[in-house]
Amino acid sequence: MYLHLDMDYFFAQLEEKRRPMSAGKIIVVCVYSGRTPDSGVVSTVNYPGRALGIHSGMPIAFAKKRAPPADTIFIPVDHEHYARMSAQIDSVVRGMCAKAVQASIDEWNVEDNEAAKKAPRLKDGIRAEFGLSCSVGVAPSLLGAKMAASKSKPDGLLVLDADAERAMIGGSDVEKVPGIGPKTSGALRAMGAQNVRDIAKLGAVRLVEAFGRKTGAWLHDLGNGRYDSGLGEEKEQGEVSRIGTLKEKTRDPYMLLSRLEELESEGKERLLHMKKSYRTLSLIFVTEDLRTHAKSMSFRNPRGWNEDIRAEKEALVREFLAGNALEVRRIGIRFANFLDLGGQTTLF
Ligand code: DCP
Ligand code: CA
Ligand code: CA
Predict the structure, then answer these.
(1) 107 counts as catalytic
(2) What's the pTM value of the predicted model, to 2 decimals?
(3) SS3 of 139, please?
(4) Ligand 1: residues within 6 Å at CB?
């Protein structure tokens, strides 16, 4: 069985969580472009905002027209916070499920014979640990699990057996299927297929003619109730970084190094999960003038997640302080230039 877990209104829910004052408000997370105060697009919005028609990708100015100002909070995206929370959720998912793959910043795919039993435990675990809601689908195929999760949103749980899965996917409109983009769904509709079951009637020959061998064969299987197996690809990441704010502005190397401790171990936890070693280590300094500076060093032999880098960090901090006279407000660490560790974890 496959399980798919997707966090509900992820960025907006995280913002809601760290602002208890925002209870009951519409939360619009925005990517500001900076051209004018309202330039940019909506990243995501909580469910009360969606009820007013606000959605991801919408210009911020449009969202402002739809949302009552007194009940709405517009917040700029804070990717570092979301990435850090995503890594923590990842630890919980992997702690409960041996075969888990992170598919995006807020979703996971799992293959597990006990998926139906684990699904409510995963939801409870994430709720208990972070106070966050997610939606989970369980089905004989990953496609079925994904569609079940999105159908059950928000805070949903939907477990399907093979018959229920075939009924759900077969009856679904073609554009609702992950993997069918707007171009393909438009073409399918033009050929007379509204829902997935209709695709079977088009026949293999026409499908391959219209969409090529690979997509055509996939659509033919889909229409006939044969769904992909496999877990999908892990989202490839070439680097891992963690940044945090200092309690106060400082140039004290010990304050800087001590703030790095937690960030370093969070980053290394990610490396461990990803089974990666790294060849480049960087420290990131955001100075009081809000400029970002990085000091890096590279290693001929890749470093493992459990290797001590105290001396290297100290050297990079001193190198930065020697070349810059300003106080530091935020500090971060980045591991990059990855190498697959594969089964070689015992080397370290
Ligand atoms: N995101 C974005 N721009 C988009 C789509 C998404 O910045 N066009 C970001 C914000 C989302 C996050 O990615 O919070 C996850 O995307 P989802 O598609 O899973 O959407 P949400 O988690 O926000 O909502 P849902 O409850 O529908 O999953
Ligand atoms: Ca989501
Ligand atoms: Ca998602």
Answers:
(1) yes
(2) 0.73
(3) strand
(4) 6-11, 43-44, 56-57, 106, 153-154
Examine residue 68 and say whether the peptide bond preceding it is cis (omega within 30 degrees of 0).
no
CA distance 266 to 88: 8
The pairing of beta strand 276-287 with beta strand 292-303: antiparallel
Amino acid sitting at position 345: T
Query: Distance (Å, rounded) from C-alpha 67 to C-alpha 43?
Result: 15
- For 312-335, the pLDDT digits (tens) are 999 999 999 999 999 999 999 999
Instruction: Specify which residues 294 forms β-bridges with.
Output: 284
User: What distance in Å separates the CA atoms of residue 20 and residue 44, rounded to the nearest whole number?
Assistant: 19
For 49-76, what is each residue's pLDDT tens digit?
999 999 999 999 999 999 999 999 999 9
Q: Which ligand has the shortest distance to the CA of 10?
A: 1
pLDDT tier for residue 342 given thresholds of 50, 70 and 90: low
For domain 2-8+80-161, the CATH architecture is 2-Layer Sandwich (3.30)
Name every residue whose Cβ is closer than 8 Å to that of residue 176 and which is 6 or more positions away in sequence: 147
Architecture of domain 239-346: 2-Layer Sandwich (3.30)
Residue tagged active-site, from 107, 111, 165, 264: 107
* Domain layout of the chain by residue ranges: 2-8+80-161, 10-78, 171-223, 239-346
Query: How far does the chain reach from its first CA to its final CA, in angstroms?
Result: 34
